[in-house]
Write a structure and sequence with these properties.
It contains 9 helices and 14 strands. The protein is of the alpha+beta class. The strands form 2 sheets. Strands 1-2-3-4-5-14-6 form a 7-stranded mixed sheet. Strands 8-9-10-11-12-7-13 form a 7-stranded mixed sheet, with helices on both faces. A hairpin with a 2-residue loop joins strand 2 and strand 3. Helix 2 crosses helix 3. The longest helix is centred in the N-terminal third of the chain and has 12 residues. The radius of gyration is 20 Å and the shape is globular. The protein starts with 5 loop residues before the first helix and ends with a helix.
Length: 302
């Protein structure tokens, strides 16, 4: 691993007409200022929202040698721009442990917008890391693509899982820390942490095999209850156990499940839309569909 060194990016490509601005890592002491800055940039979010998510991120295990929270533009000791990076050790296909960074939230004060692209380039230049953006606003898509990111998820499916036929001899239950049978240590810890953040961690058992799932409940326009899929071992498991999961979630007030997808999926009753849900990545291991573990979706929205 070769994390970006602060000395390398202090003035790289800086607009010459502006002085006293540097790029540096965000520290714990910066978090109140960072939360206030993000609240100005995202008026629909409160400072408490940002501080809660940052506190959750600060208290969990993270890859050594990488920024704890990302980078900021510093002007006279005050953050005037920020790019939150949520670094995690995750398991890729085949069981390989990789470093992944969720490019969570990015905002720069208007007077310093000339530094925006420089901040993103400097913060996402480590070629050993997979960077990914799961909430790019549509008007930023061309800019994100110009920064070297490529689409890995084109849209979403809204599925009524309860309308699928359930399989026989299947049990669905919330994750119990005392019953980790059939789960790898990575999966069990993933389920435990996400449950602690307010997500619904679920284990489906069938024919002696355990299948982990993580859902996050929210409401569309504060009305329609939706369960967002944050993690499963394989999307094929979701299709296979759709009827069983759908009945389990319906009993808990979830009518639809929101699933990242690139096209409609046979076996799921619902509809596909490419109007929302686009996601980008750059790096050696683009995330697979069905894996938003340890991202802003869980840490901030859970």
């Amino acid at each position: 691993m070769q994390p970006v060194r602060k000395a390398e990016i202090a003035n790289e490509g800086a607009p010459q007409a502006v002085t006293g601005v540097r790029i540096r890592e965000i520290t714990a002491a910066d978090l109140p200022a960072v939360a206030a800055l993000l609240t100005r940039g995202f008026a629909f979010r409160s400072e408490a929202y940002w501080l809660r998510g940052l506190d959750r991120h600060a208290s969990r295990a993270r890859p050594a040698g990488f920024p704890a929270f990302g980078y900021c533009l510093d002007h006279g000791g005050v953050p005037v721009g920020v790019i939150l990076l949520l670094f995690s050790n995750v398991q890729a296909e085949g069981g390989q442990t990789i470093v992944r960074a969720n490019v969570s939230s990015w905002y720069v004060e208007p007077a310093f917008r000339a530094f925006s692209s420089m901040l993103v380039r400097a913060a996402t230049r480590d070629k050993t890391v997979t960077y990914f953006n799961i909430t790019p606003a549509p008007h930023t898509w061309p800019q994100v693509e110009a920064q070297g990111f490529k689409v890995y998820c084109k849209g979403q499916i809204y599925a009524a899982l309860a309308l699928s036929r359930p399989l026989a001899d299947v049990t669905v239950a919330q994750f119990d820390e005392g019953d980790r049978a059939g789960l790898s240590s990575y999966e069990a810890e993933l389920l435990r942490q996400h449950a602690a953040w307010g997500c619904l961690s679920v284990v489906v058992r069938h024919s002696g095999t355990a299948h982990p799932f993580v859902f996050q409940k929210h409401r569309v326009k504060n009305v329609l209850p939706i369960d967002r899929l944050l993690y499963c071992r394989d999307l094929g498991d979701l299709v296979r156990f759709a009827g069983n999961l759908g009945r389990f979630l319906t009993r808990r007030g979830g009518l639809l499940v929101r699933i990242d997808a690139n096209q409609p999926m046979a076996g799921l009753i619902g509809w596909y839309s490419a109007k929302r849900g686009r996601k980008y990545a750059k790096g050696p291991h683009p995330p697979r569909l069905g894996d938003l573990a340890f991202t802003e979706a869980a840490l901030f929205d859970g």
